[in-house]
Design goal:
Structural class: mainly alpha
Helix content: 55-70%
Distance between the termini: 45 Å
Oligomer: single chain
Strand content: 5-15%
Shape: elongated
Number of helices: 5
Largest sheet: 3 strands, antiparallel
Number of strands: 3
Radius of gyration: 22 Å
Strand order of the largest sheet: 1-3-2
Length: about 130
């Protein structure tokens, strides 16, 4: 897995967890399994994240009896978590749209030198301090 892929996954893990919990309450192993299936994230990554999200007030927990074994700790999204989710989804959509524009070539052409504060005689690749 490339470094950019690892960093992208780490960056959106919290967003994905909040999105899953906005649909229904779940326990950490179930969340980890869904994340592993969807974006190939390791199960060990989810537990520290869930503790941090609980500490930050984004999720709350409760115990529920399990049909097999001890009670499970379920997570539910809080109002603060819903607010964070809405903000992060908006940021994500803006970010991915900008990246899509850049990689497909639909991004606007760079602004003219006079609008950037650079002198007009600066050649591509050199800074205004290098130009004579």
């Amino acid at each position: 897995m490339s470094e950019i892929e690892v960093q992208l996954k780490k960056g959106v893990l919290g967003l994905c967890v909040l999105a899953l919990l906005s649909r229904r309450n779940s326990y950490a192993y179930e969340i980890a399994s869904r994340m592993a299936d969807a974006v190939d994230m390791g199960e060990g990554t989810i537990y520290p994240l869930m503790r941090r999200m609980q500490k930050d007030g984004l999720v709350s927990t409760y115990l529920e009896e399990s049909p097999s074994g001890p009670p499970r700790k379920y997570y539910s999204i809080t109002e603060a978590g819903q607010t964070r989710l809405v903000a992060q989804v908006s940021e994500w959509r803006g970010f991915t749209a900008a990246v899509d524009e850049l990689i497909t070539g639909d991004a606007p052409v760079a602004t003219a030198p006079e609008t950037t504060g650079e002198p007009a005689n600066v050649q591509e690749g050199e800074s205004s301090h290098d130009a004579s």
